[in-house]
Fold:
Amino acid sequence: MDLSGQLAKLFKPNERPHPAEAELSVAQGAANTAKDFDWLDRNIPCQKACPAGTDIPGYLTAIAEERPEDAYRINLRDNIFPGILGRVCSRPCESACRHGYEGLGEPVAICASKRSAADESPTDPVILEPYFPPTQKSIAIIGSGVAGLAAARELALLGHTVTVYEKHTEPGGMLNQGIPEFRLPRDLIQQEIKQVIALGITLHCGVTIGTDIPLHQLIDQHDAVIAAAGTLKPNQPNLPGQTLPGIRHGLDFLLEAHTSGTTVGKRVIVIGGGYTAMDCARTARRLGGQVAELNDGKLLIAYRRTRDDIRVIPDELEELDHESIPLECSATPLAYLETDGALSGMRFQRTGTDETFELPADTVLLATGQTPDTDWQQNLTHPNLFLVGDYATGATDLISAIGHAKKTVTEIDHFLMGTHRRTPRVQVQTASAIGRTEAMDQLPRNAMPTLPLEQRTTTAEVETGYETPAALTEAQRCYRCNYKFEIEQDKCIKCDWCLKAKPHENCILMLKTITYDDAGKATDWESTERVREMNLIWINSDACTRCGACITACPVDAISLQKVTLTHENTGEPS
Structure:
């Protein structure tokens, strides 16, 4: 007997009621209730973790469907610098990825996938359409690092006139000054900055605000001024012997190494445990610095905490090992050592103990962080002056600076126009299929190909990127958490076919009760293993890996599939 056909006659065609207990407020269309946004936050953890709010499932789907240009445009829209971030993003999305949950394998290589789409993108600038016509509002931006350029791009799309002032001879800020070329090619930086400037932004390089142009003059000439001057003032540990020659701040060293050129001594110690420390050590290795000796081991990087406390991606530590750059942890600097007026080493204390030890060195690179240099601002504040990126928050990472810039631009646009002209919406679309199979869950994570050691120089890019087959299979690993599977309770006949088909213990549950708050969000439930105690069968979106087995198993088409996306609509007119 065709059970599916017989039971389907009980329901009218295309009847899709969406009761109050549903996790989304609509079955299809635009939604903006608290529970809709809560569903997005809980169920798309990678996008929630991204400070720029990148539609990660959207661009991974585009890559998997062999649409790399669409994937590039999604990234360009959301995070502005796809090729750059595809190489040097700190990747908070990957630590949040559901595929990395216990028992589910490794996270999707989201960053490397972003790069794969960028590598296949057109070399000519991709210019996005502005959201609004010109507003005749003028904004000046001080600084052309990622935060300043991100703010400039977003303001230009909103129809504002933007002028950027940069004290150095070229734009890019930390992209040029602090990230080695073997990690980030300079032609790529120029290409993606060119895309921003092409929106009609005026750029003045070699102009120092506070010296060449007073800050108050900028404020008088523009409707708003953004300070995006970054964090360029080094944190200098107050240690005995700190004025000895051979002690240098890491950012100064990196800037010299990749512009005018520089050298290091034969014994180099790098102090710190962040990305700057990694870059200093790997650059020093390429410049020929030998590692200092500690008993039978060797030292290049000294860090006062444990290896687990180092705040860099695991790949970075693997590359240290691969390039034979030792890391000595729990080593707190106490003093610089001097011999005949020259730097000869450092004294350390083993963190948490009374043990001290000394290491020889003729070069010490301090990767101990930096803070904003506010002297040029001269304590001037003004309602039209806004701080953006690291200059506002302190030193962070590239994607956090971009995210902060985007949020601040929303505030500035409201300040200038008197209304919120771009409003977030949750877009819900019915779908018939997700394009995944359970076999895709078993695909292993693709390793990033790298140059052989003998080919690594100060300019040769170490990571070479995915070939197309690897890019496709990596994108296929994505669970596509922006899809929602939901059992329509008025159609469910309480059979157990979906329960038998489920691949994970908790992705589909038999429930006795479920509790909702005033916003309609499910806050608690009581499950049961006994059919006679069951009042409903419920798909737990938090545990669902979007394999589609339940839809295939259901005999009465009681399981709906929806694609859920965060969008922004033009909703406001100037007041």
Observations:
- Confidence is low (pLDDT under 50) at residues 1-20, 293-297.
